[in-house]
Amino acid sequence: MTAVSEQSAGPARSSVSVQVRYFAGARAAAGVREETVRLNRPDGAAPTVSDVIAAALNQHDEKLAKVLPACSFLLDGVAVRDRGTRIPGDATLDVLPPFAGG
């Protein structure tokens, strides 16, 4: 068996797939009900909610960019208060626009 040093192995890489589900106006803006966003992190760190949002924006036009600032997010069913929250692999991120009514 041959040992590989950390130096020769190169930087750590992390790849995470996140299922993003869009609701109501966010769904209309994205044009899809849900999609898988795949993120590669060369530093090996888990991606954040902000990273997923940025990756989703790169896949869509300006309609989604106009809606996202007003949206709230659920990560695996739990409200996200900090967009710097790390996302584990195979997570689900729900995008919820403001809802009217009562």
Automatic annotation (TrEMBL):
Protein name: MoaD/ThiS family protein
Entry superkingdom: Bacteria
Species per Swiss-Prot/TrEMBL record: Saccharopolyspora karakumensis
InterPro entries per record: Beta-grasp_dom_sf (IPR012675), Mopterin_synth/thiamin_S_b (IPR016155)
